[in-house]
Amino acid sequence: MDPRVIKMICMIPVVVCILLNAAGICVADIPLFDAALTTRLCTERALPNGYPCQEFTVTTRDGYILAIQRIPYGSTGPENGLSRPPVILGAGVFQQAALWLLNPSEQSLGFILADKGFDVWFLNFRGTAESSKHVSLSIEDKAFWIWSFDELASFDVPAALQLVNQTTGSQAFYIGHSQGTTIGLAALVDPSVRQMFKAAVLLSPIAYLSQTTSQLAIAFSQMYLDQVYLLSGARQFDMSAGSLASGLIDRACREIDCGFTLNSFTGPNSEFNSSRMGFYTTFMPEPTSANNVAHLAQLIRNDGFRKYDMGEEGNMNKYGQATPPEYDLSSIPKEFPILIASGGWDHLSDLVDVQNLIYNLRCNVKTLYLPRYGHTDYVLGTNASTEAFTQVMDFLRSV
Q1: pLDDT tens per residue across span 301-341
Q2: Catalytic machinery residues
């Protein structure tokens, strides 16, 4: 069918809504379907499951153009007069925002939040397929990839928060998973960014990594394969088959028994539905920057939650000191609410490191501990909706 005809058909509900709104009848101002929608989160996950979806782009202060999607209400439609608090979801490394919608709607946190009365926003960090544009650089340019999670915290998160704040007029909840929690914590240290947050939920949190028991992460970092990658001159870390990154991971796996590669990285996951693995891999892994991978490896090799180590000369030029500064987690005010959710089977976010994180925070910390949960169970677990997400909802409503 001619795309112009499709768009005219899609405009019919909007026109009807405008006419009815004049009579005070229509309350839905966001159409379920928009022919201009292009991102996979909207076209392949939200819309087919009966959820409305909007797409936005924001440009960061350093020129990256980020894709942000929004599910403003649940599958049953908007409720007149209901105030919907905004929630921003931040995924981990090698993930795009669609991660939060990859299970059936009754098991996916993004859908559940929308059905439970929240206004849900999905942030695609720079470098992912949906956020691969820049005002002056191409993804083929090495300069496009010169960043680590420092920049994701200082540029990407503020840009998303400003969009949500301007659109809704409200502070936003932030829910992060894995490196999404690293980014959230680093952003919260900045008072100008923190004022746009209402509270934070950290699922499988990562700040300190020196006590990780992840076999693959330890092997990769202790063999300094991140530095081998940087010495090659490559700056995009792409794990597609046959890539240099994939080859280095295979090299690390010769030192350990990787077996099922996901488990060698995260530890076992009790709630992971392996029958959906083929589907999941159509959405992941996403590329990231070599500097970002190196930054995470630095956290494993060294104590502390520090900014990117550029070497003594580079550190002096950027930070004014020979070593990279620590993120001062104690600066997050004592009244700021954070929920930390961890699992007993999580090797990447090891319990010793999680306890170190809790110790260094001085804010209002609540904890959720599930003994049989692994690293991915808090986002892809088949029973997470009843075992974890209900407690997440209770926390959000209590703030």
Answers
A1: 999 999 999 999 999 999 999 999 999 999 999 999 999 99
A2: 178, 346, 375
